[in-house]
Amino acid sequence: MTLSEQLFDKAKNYIPGGVNSPVRAFRAVGGSPIFIKSAKGAYLYDEDGNTYIELINSWGPMILGHAHELVEKAVSDAIQKGFSFGAPTRREVEMAELICSIVPSVEKVRMVNSGTEATMSALRVARGYTGRDKMIKFEGNYHGHGDSFLIAAGSGAMTFGEPDSPGVTKGVANDTLTAPYNDLAAVQALVDANKGQIACIILEPVVGNMGLVKPVEGFLEGLRKICDEEGIVLIFDEVMTGFRLAKGGFQERCGVIPDMTTMGKIIGGGMPVGAYGGKKEIMDVVSPAGPVYQAGTLSGNPIAMAAGQAMLTHLSENPSVYTRLEEIGTTLTNGMKANMEKIGLNYTLNHVGSMFTLFFTDKPVNNFEDAKTSDTALFGRYFQAMLKRGIYLAPSQYEAMFLSTALTDEHIQTILDANLESLKEVV
Ligand code: PMP
């Protein structure tokens, strides 16, 4: 038995399913999860002394690779000054100013502790602002584990075949309307059938949580138009795409500006942080400026703010980060396509910037139904074949890979060699 296997066995006695977040259990890919001891740059090191080149990067935030010196220094400096005050600090103001200057839709912002809190709070604010109860979300999009969002949810909920969770009341479910991603006509039909009742439309502007799915041309523009016509708050959930697909998130890249934006993990450089922000007039309904209540003892935590500030300052001062992320993403995905051609495979590879997913289906993947045509058993074998060759992928077909600037051209070549060998082995 490996040390990771021993730890997992023990964990199952004390933690439900042995993990603190479901996808970590490797249930979708078979085998036992790898327990991580440490990470640096492009590498993960496990309890058994194995080294992996890493393509998850803590599900997104490690844009600069693990334990980047700048972030490390900011955190160790901040630790000298106390861990939490529950009172305002200079850094929170500087962080808010920084985020407002970077993200096009954000004029005011509130820090929270996770992506889940960010989306739950944004939804409450949209409801408070409009005085309406209903929300539209898209099948296969994941917005954290808030009750309202666990209807037709992606990510782990989809991986485990439970996109609608027990424990969510019928009342909550009734206020959540769902449409297929990339289907404007379906959204229009929901809006028409629920005139004057819809507070917000929330979506991942590029979806990472059913595997990577891009918005088709005109989809985001169409949503913007519907929201403008109907007085609906448009919320982009950029927890994964913010500061990654462009400095100002995918909204900067596509030019469609939502009314509100939710952010997460990246703005803490990997520390537990989230945030939601948007137009002043909307954000000013939040307490104590307005009547919509939302609070947090650890919100704006000084250590997390220090990490986030170091990370965001570096990203905003170094546009070369984004040039490099594009370059790595293009080289890697082109190489994977060339590998498939070499051995006569035609699987769908969706890619935007430094995020991508190889779907084990030859159908185009533009929504949840398309994603479900993937051969997930085959993905499981591919995952294990890559792991054996020292490449750590997201342990589910329904997730995106995230690249970091710590990857060198040599790493990319190593990943491509492993990809070719693994495909040959499992297909
Ligand atoms: N929104 C999106 C788009 C996400 O991908 C996630 C998690 N990956 C969340 C919200 C929830 O964030 P957290 O896990 O930090 O609660």
UniProtKB/TrEMBL annotation:
The modification N6-(pyridoxal phosphate)lysine is found at residue 265. GO terms for molecular function: glutamate-1-semialdehyde 2,1-aminomutase activity; pyridoxal phosphate binding; transaminase activity. Keywords: Cytoplasm, Isomerase, Porphyrin biosynthesis, Pyridoxal phosphate. It comes from Arcicella aurantiaca. Its EC number is 5.4.3.8. GO terms for biological process: protoporphyrinogen IX biosynthetic process. GO terms for cellular component: cytoplasm. CDD domains: OAT_like. It catalyses: (S)-4-amino-5-oxopentanoate = 5-aminolevulinate. Its cofactor is pyridoxal 5'-phosphate. This is Glutamate-1-semialdehyde 2,1-aminomutase. HAMAP family: HemL_aminotrans_3. Homodimer. Its main location: cytoplasm. It is an enzyme of class 5 (isomerase). It is found in: Cytoplasm. Pathway: Porphyrin-containing compound metabolism; protoporphyrin-IX biosynthesis; 5-aminolevulinate from L-glutamyl-tRNA(Glu): step 2/2. Pfam families: Aminotran_3. Belongs to the class-III pyridoxal-phosphate-dependent aminotransferase family. HemL subfamily.
